[in-house]
Amino acid sequence: MTKDKKSLTYVFFTLILASVLWYLLFIVKPFNFWIQMSVSILILIIISSFSKNIVFKFKKITPSDILLGILSAIVLYAIFYFGNIISGYLFSFKDTEILSVYNNKAQGDLKLISALLLFLIGPGEEIYWRGFIQSTLAKILGENKGYVLSALLYSLVHVITGNFMLVLAALVCGLYWGWLYKKRQSLIPVIISHALWDFTIFVLFPLI
């Protein structure tokens, strides 16, 4: 087996694991949602770190990285804000599915949820999805194909939740953060963007 095939096989293995973890998280719900999500993210980071083809592109933090992360989080929130209004006219089940996600806030103190979103969940997802999945696919298939495929996979993993709005949100986020990572070639602004967006949309200014 060639090196590229081994890398793709390992990517596929971690994606299966991610799907199982997401199924447990959103469907089975064996214990507290936020703790389970944090543990799931840590498992994916640890598993992906065993890959010999791992590429976590961290660079020195610059003021432009911080500014870009903040501005991109604001832009993405605006996209979701107006998208939420438009989707209300298109999907009668929109509010029910979005509320099913927001209801998880009842399982934890807002301070704990905020800390997990800002310092573990948001950053962890970027390390796995962009730092490992997109970087690996881009190295094998090329930047553009790796970007598009990783965004689609990010969305497809959420299909197992049975929540259409969550799948659609994942697709938008995957394309958005994947593009930012492809252009910047650094995880720093993407992590800042994801963490701030998570915190804003779940804690500060929920859409519902």
From TrEMBL:
Chain segments annotated as transmembrane: 7-27, 33-55, 67-92, 152-180, 186-207
Read off the Pfam families from this record. Answer: Rce1-like
Q: Does the keyword section mention Transmembrane helix?
A: yes
Q: Which keywords annotate this record?
A: Membrane, Transmembrane, Transmembrane helix
Q: What is this protein called?
A: Lysostaphin resistance A-like protein
Q: Where's the CAAX prenyl protease 2/Lysostaphin resistance protein A-like domain?
A: 113-199
> Which branch of life, at top level?
Bacteria
Leader peptide range in chain numbering: none
